[in-house]
Amino acid sequence: xxxxxxxxxxxxxRSSLVLRLVMLAGVWxxxxxVLAGFGLxxxxxxxxxxxxxxGLEESILGLQAETTVDGGQLYAPPMTDVRAYRPFSGFYWQxxxxxxxxxxxxxxxxxxxxxxxxxxxxxxxxxARATPGKSVFxxxxxxxxxxxxxxxxxxxxxxxxxxxxxxxxxNRESIxxxxxxxxxxxxxxxVVLGGGLILAVYLQVRVGLAPLFGLRREVALVRRGxxxxxxxxxxxxxxxxxxxxxxxxxxxxxxxxxxxxxVGNLAHALKTPLAxxxxxxxxxxxxxxxxxxxxAAAMQSHVEHHLRRARAAARAQTIGERTDVSQVLDExxxxxxxxxxxxxxxxxxxxxxxxxFRGERQDLQEVVGNILENAxxxxxxRIKVTAEPLDVDWLSITVEDDGPGLPAERRGEVLKRGxxxxxxxxxxxxxxxxxxELSRAYxxxxxxxxxxxxxxxxxxxxxxxxx
Amino acid sequence: MRILLVEDDPDLxxxxxxxxxxxxxxxxxxxxxxEGHFLGETEPYDAVVLDLGLPKMDGVSVLERWxxxxxxxxxxxxxxxxxxxxxxxxxxxxxxxxxxKPFHTEELLARLRALVRRSAGHxxxxxxxxxxxxxxxxxxxxxxxxxxxxTSLEYRLxxxxxxxxxxxxSRTELVEHxxxxxxxxxxxxxxxxxxxxxxxxxxxxxETVRGLGYRIMALEGETEA
Lengths: 467, 225
What we know:
The structure holds 2 protein chains of 2 kinds.
Chain A: H1 8-14, H2 17-66, E1 68-70, E2 73-75, E3 91-98, E4 104-109, H3 122-130, E5 136-141, E6 147-155, E7 164-171, H4 173-223, H5 239-283, H6 287-314, E8 323-324, H7 325-339, E9 346-350, E10 356-357, H8 361-378, E11 382-389, E12 394-401, H9 411-414, H10 431-441, E13 445-450, E14 456-465
Chain B: E1 2-6, H1 10-22, E2 26-30, H2 33-42, E3 47-51, H3 59-68, E4 75-79, H4 84-93, E5 97-100, H5 105-120, E6 127-129, E7 132-135, E8 140-143, E9 146-148, H6 152-163, H7 171-178, H8 189-201, E10 206-209, E11 213-216
Parallel strand pairs in B: 1-2, 1-3, 3-4, 4-5
Antiparallel strand pairs in B: 6-7, 7-8, 8-9, 10-11
């Protein structure tokens, strides 16, 4: 399967919102700044050229006004600009006759031209002929090869019938230099302006989107069980989203609760018929009853296993639940001491008052209940339970008994599903396997060790909710 | 020996009635919660076998009502709900033992025997101190008629203090009474337990006598019930 390459704006869709907004604003403002730069540069150059040409035209008008004819000879007036006398100074003038083929033959010229002449292309002459009394501007070079900007105008001089071409030219390097300097200034100014704009947009976006980042932090707190719902005040655009998120959290808890109820109902519905079948089969011995008894027992263990799996799958996904550890230890100790009353079991539990488990109450009851039941079965008389925080995110619950303990090589077995080490001791035999499965569902773990009192020590690590 | 069986499933009821009669008990059967509650309240049974999922009134409510009406008959709960929150709720309501369905009839009989034997044992008089009452026979306590949920260590502490009410009891004395010799005795232990018991019976019933120990007493204006 080939993938079409993504266009840049499609890629932008997945990247950060801040980057997206800054990029869009940046592309727009940089485009505008570049346009403005070109525009300004053009205007500046035009104004400079116009001023330059006005000067040339002034020189031509001066020449026209004072030029006289005496005895067929043209006399040009003295120029005030000393550059007209200094050779190759960069300022030149020339009065030339024009032929029918639009070529020029110089009649009088400035001293600065020395022994060369100003050449006017035929196209310029033709244009000057078409617009008498108006200057035609063109570019050329002076005898030393410097670029010139020149004006030419065809006019009639009193005393002479054929019109003559007045020309004035000046070195144009000054315009080009000014224009170049202007480009540097404008580019520098625009770069600073553009950078400033992008920085301003970035700040604006960061500040403008601050509530969004706040929302993200709050959602993270809820997910980690440090808050039950979103409580922040959000702007009009975000508050519906916050409301929906809260509704989702509530819905999630509701769904888990309902699922659990269904699971419980199913268990209840199946177990009474199973009890009846088992008892009936035991009372009438025979081949059929053996089969019924075996199969009913198998059904029972399947039902139990899969119901617990279903419950375990539903947990750890719930959001924002927290359970007081000492309360659960208290209740379960009372329950367990009643269950093992004929044995006279004493449970001594210790837990900090403010220690909280991040998860469902039923799950903590299930974990601790199963460990305690196992300890109750094996202990002589005493069970010690200690709950303590490990760090900010984790807590541990340790259950020790004074029973015979469990050899290290058999500890792995009890955590496996359905393992039952001693058929003579009561219990479903699933206890510690369920504890293992449940604590894993919460990202925790179970460890078995020797207790100081002689029996088994079970340590379970579970997520802790912030107090 | 009279036993009350409260169970709605007809097949299971038949089997259990048969097994209990064979074991020498006289069995009364109630098929729903209301009838079960009525029989348990009016007839003197030696023990009750109570199913939790019952029509008309569920087992936990039946049990709670009996315990509020001071019916102290030992109760064994039969339940299909084998998660711990259900078991805790059952014991919280005042059950004495439980059995999860499906079960072996022999196990039910064995547990019933133990239950009857226990409740028939050492008869010692009830203790009271103001609104606080303690029934050593059933190992139960209550405040103003409300049943208290105590662990065995808390119960032992309260029992000892009520036996010696009005007297200041030192920490050492309490520790020695609370634990067998080889239990670790940490000096904070008693404070922890006094704190927990106070939380359950109300903060003012146990007075701290600085440097000496603790004393239990009735609240002011409270008459012996």
